[in-house]
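Researcher: Next sequence.
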Amino acid sequence: MVERSSNTIIMYPVNDRSRSTLLPIIKRHVEPGSTIYSDGWSAYCDLNSEGYRHFTVLHTYTFKSFYRNVNSGEILEVHTNRVKGA
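Model: Next structure:
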């Protein structure tokens, strides 16, 4: 995990990348209501229902995605470059 505003990195060695392994780690370090940017790994699919604002980039197609809020016009740039680089 990388906090974009502070560039703080948290890494854990894990035995597998399942939802049951990754979700408790995310919940331990990320406040509900926070925005999470991730790749399309299936373990992350339910993060919106867990109380996060979750946006994905599908690396099969691109390395950066953009989402536009239709109400505010805000544009979110979604990439995982910092965590991949770490």
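Model: The longest strand covers residues 35-39. The longest helix spans residues 19-29.
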